[in-house]
Amino acid sequence: MQNCKLWMITLIILLIVTKMAVAQSPIPTTLEGPFEPATRRFDPSLRRGSNDLPMDHPRLKKNVTLNFPEQIALAISSPTSMWVSWVTGDAQIGKNVTPLDPSKVGSEVRYGKESGKYESVKNGVSVVYSQLYPFEGLLNYTSGIIHHVRIDGLKPGTKYYYKCGDSSIPAMSEEHAFETLPMPSQSTYPHRIAVVGDLGLTSNTSTTVDHLIQNDPSMILMVGDLTYANQYRTTGGKGASCFSCAFPDAPIRETYQPRWDGWGRFMEPLISRVPMMVIEGNHEIEPQVSGITFKSYLTRFAVPSEESGSKSNFYYSFDAGGVHFIMLGAYVDYNATGAQYAWLKDDLHRLDRTVTPWLVAAWHPPWYNSYSSHYQEFECMRQEMEALLYQYGVDIVFSGHVHAYERMNRVYNYTLDRCGPVYITVGDGGNIEQVDVDFADDPGKCPSAGDNTPEFGGVCHLNFSSGPAKGSFCWNKQPEWSAFRESSFGHGILEVVNSTYALWTWHRNQDTYKEDSHGDQIYIVRQPELCSPSAKPSVSPSVPSLSAALHSLVLSVSLPLLGMFSLLSSSK
């Protein structure tokens, strides 16, 4: 009875606001797509990049002594558990370094629902790692002690207070707080999900993170290329402009590991209270002696690999309310005969869409990309995995790597398809390498087939076999599957309204101080009744219907009201 009254009130309000909405410009929905491709060219009044922050910058400097915790970070373990990570002790860099003994400092988290009252205590593990370069002029590194503790027994949607460290020394952190995410359910969702990629540690990074904090996210997706530590001695700081020229006897490039420590300090005010979920990018490969790779990434971050059955930090999954996230590794085996593919297939098979209606995937390099940079670079991965993701109805895919923003029309196998995912590239968080401004369809900007060789996997570049670009490697205009693109630094916010509607907003750095301003905004709409495995169409309509446009007009005004009523109803 109560629900019936609620819906009647909602319908009355809809009739009122529809008249008001006619005069307004509504937020579009994917129901109106596919959209005519649109491009916003780079604003020449803006700089394409900025310098790295120096290591003595106040946000990068170490501000604790002895074995007190720093670089504190959170990551989701499960709906009722959270990973807490931090670093103690001093890292070392030089020709001769001696690793610290991780057993000398305990890994302990005290936590509870009231400030200053910590009813629960959990202990965890501690590790150190080394990055070694036995070559003339290069520097070895060994980390501080990195701690990971999994705290459990948490109540969803609840605020917790915690301290971390070693109480026996004593050396405990100041009090921090976080709020757990809601339980998996088709009616509960995270407040806001921030999405950012290729962040780096530049002045632009500062703007991105400060802007992101203003948007008050409840969790963060970090889609690879975190610190650019491997670029610091080449393009950042006072490094050599030509690494191979300065270090001709070094067969591999040194990655300046103190940048990881600076990045951890820089991010701590945010990620000590908001969980950050990471996936590796190519700048995390960081090769060292003996063929060792990814040492920093694998040691510094706790992810729910065991919890999701993957047993690999390179790929895993987790739930956040009614959203199931799949984080895939592009720099480990992704072939259909490999372990990652087998895990992915099993994870998708076990998924219950009545509990987690939304299915969101993320990996670093995009499959769909109309920029010259990284064009068709990971075509092999697409050919191996796309059909499986399409079969199980992935709704949204986030990637980075290309240093620009691009949102696709729903697409599958380069064909417009109303049941395909919405692919979104956000590889412009603030990296040192500048934003990409050249499009593959611009005259003279189409890469050659030998360009854009991936750092892992094979080369599967292809000419299009159908459509306007049939027989060509590049389109001669913006591809029909590219809905909107622009070169700008920024981050995205995903706000899931209910089991079928989610609002996506691209927040550009240049709009930081503008009221209610953004670079791109759209409601992404699920259509499970049309896109179940047995009901998927082979092609999508090319012209939106009038009813779809009217539907969008009403919903752009009414969805916030529906969200408000949902909150009121759930609180009773």
Q: Key terms for this structure?
A:
single chain, 572 residues, alpha+beta, eight-stranded mixed beta sheet, six-stranded mixed beta sheet, globular, disordered C terminus
Can you tell me the overall shape?
globular
Total count of helical runs of at least 4 residues? 9
Strand content: 15-25%
Number of strands: 28
Q: How many strands, which pairing sense, and closed or not: the largest β-sheet?
A: 8 strands, mixed
Distance between the termini: 14 Å
State mean pLDDT (0 to 100 scale): 90
The radius of gyration computed from the alpha-carbon positions, rounded to a whole number of angstroms, is 24 Å
Strand order of the largest sheet: 1-25-21-24-20-19-18-17
Helix proportion range: 10-25%
Regions with little confidence, pLDDT below 50 for 5+ residues: 10-23, 537-554, 560-572
Structural class: alpha+beta
Q: Can you characterise this structure?
A:
- It is a single chain.
- With 572 residues, this protein is an alpha+beta fold.
- It is built from nine helices and 28 strands.
- The protein has helices at residues 2-22, 203-214, 243-246, 258-271, 295-300, 339-349, 379-391, 528-531, 546-571; strands at residues 38-40, 70-78, 81-88, 92-94, 108-112, 120-123, 125-127, 130-131, 140-142, 145-151, 159-166, 171-172, 176-179, 193-196, 219-222, 276-278, 316-320, 323-327, 358-362, 396-399, 405-408, 411-412, 415-416, 422-426, 482-486, 490-496, 501-508, 520-525.
- An eight-stranded mixed beta sheet has the order 1-25-21-24-20-19-18-17, with no helix packed on it.
- Strand 11 (159-166) and strand 12 form a beta hairpin.
- Helix 1 (2-22) crosses helix 9.
- The longest helix has 26 residues, at 546-571.
- The chain is globular, with a radius of gyration of 24 Å.
- Residues 10-23, 537-554 and 560-572 have low confidence and may be disordered.
